[in-house]
Amino acid sequence: GCAQNQQTPSTAQKISPEQTTLQTSSVSTETPLTTETPKTGSIFDYESLPKYADRYYRYSKQAYQAAIKEKSIVYLYFYANWCPICKEARPKILEAFNKMNFDDVVGFEVHFNDNEVTDDDREITKNYQIPYQHTTIIAKDGKQVFKSLEKLTTEKLIEEIEKARGK
Fold this sequence. Notes:
Low-confidence stretches: 1-40
Mean pLDDT: 78
Distance between the termini: 38 Å
Helix content: 25-40%
Strand order of the largest sheet: 1-2-4-3-5-6
Number of strands: 6
Number of helices: 4
Structural class: alpha/beta
Radius of gyration: 15 Å
Strand content: 15-25%
C-alpha cells in the first residue's frame, strides 16, 4: 500500500505547526500549503491557491487561464484521492516541481471522480478528454503537447516539461 511509498519531505516541503495543511478524510495531511508567489508581476495571485510544491497547486480555472495568458507551460495531473496509482505518483510530482526552477512552468492537480471534484475540474477534464485519473497533460499556449497515462518518474516528468519548454 501507500505506507511503503511514503518519503521524507524535502526541506521545501517541511512545515511549521503554524502553517495550514490540506485536511480531508482521504488525503495525506503531510501535504503543506505554503505561500510563495511563483512569478513576480503575475496576473494571478497564486498565493490564494492550496500549494503542494514549488509552482504546483490545486487546480483553479482562473489560475489556469492566467498561466495560459502568461505563456506558461502548464502541467496538469488528473488526481483521484482514492487512486493508488495517483497516491504513488504524487511524491514524484512534488519532487519534480521542487527540483525544477522554471519561471515559465506552472502545475495543477485536477481532481477526477472523487469527493473533491469541482465544476471547474469537470470542465477541464472534459476539455482535455481525460478518460481516467492518473493522466498527465502538458500544455503550451493552451494546446496539449504531451499526454500520458503511464507512471512517470521524477526525471521523466522533468524531461517532458523541458521538451515542452523547447518546442
